[in-house]
Amino acid sequence: MSRVPQIGPVTVADPDKTQIVVAFDSNRLAGTLFGEFDQNLAMIEQRLGVEAVARGNQVILRGNPEACAQARLALDMLYGRLEQGHDIEPGDVDGAIRMAEAADAQMNLPTLQPKGKLALAQIGTRRRVVVARSPTQDAYIRAMESAELVFGVGPAGTGKTYLAVAYAAAQLERGTVSRIILSRPAVEAGERLGFLPGDMKEKVDPYLRPLYDALYDMMQAEKVERGLASGMIEVAPLAFMRGRTLANAAIILDEAQNTTPMQMKMFLTRLGEGSRMIVTGDPSQVDLPPGQKSGLAEALGLLRNVPGIMQIRFTDTDVVRHPLVSRIVRAYDAAQSTLDGGTAGR
To answer: What's the pTM?
Structure first.
């Protein structure tokens, strides 16, 4: 990489603070890195508690030594992304900060990789490249590359489904698999498909829209349309999977918390030769009838130690949507914990 970091510490008045000067050889890329009106530097300052001052193609970082090192790592990752020809969005800055904060900690997920330097797990298709925006996303991407069956569970907004569809699209483009199969159980909050107007396709399409959206984001529209028409890409309710053996496919089951134990067993046993299966869901948002056990919860327990299967668990700290989403998830989790505690005490 062509940047030339000039690394402190430089003596400053406060002995508990340090100064790091990082210089980049491209003024144009440095300007993009810092952001319009230095907004990217401002985000780094706010999140890491450092002072970041841009001077030409240099940035001067002042503050706690650990925080300054994290800020430098975040800038390092973002500059590398620019050198590869990719744009930087606010979410990318947020992701770089998350990864920098985790850089010195041992990965607490199945990849078990030391964080001496930033992990740059990514998924690339011809249309776009998606880079991990949290340590858990990093582990999730690596798990999909190494395991035949991956469970990605946690709250909304953590990228579970999007990354799974991105991985499937990348595998199809590489020729690793010959088709993509996307499925959801036909249970929705407060609704049943039979009450919706239209034929089966018209009933199902809006329900499966999040899967379509992710596909169109990762692949050219005409390729998605051709794939859907030819059967190379199949989007269908879970009930359509019964009796099939799915070989040479990337198979995704979304909203898996709404499966029954029987449905989950049926789906998992569809795995055929040359296939990869990804199961996503949020155990806190079960829409099954009262008293009905979730197949996802059962599977996570039964398959915890089975070789070839990885379980990646996201938390509210991994939410990559609007910051309020993380706070909303945290508030609901706290309320549920209080309720569970009160029930247990009876």
So the answer is: 0.73
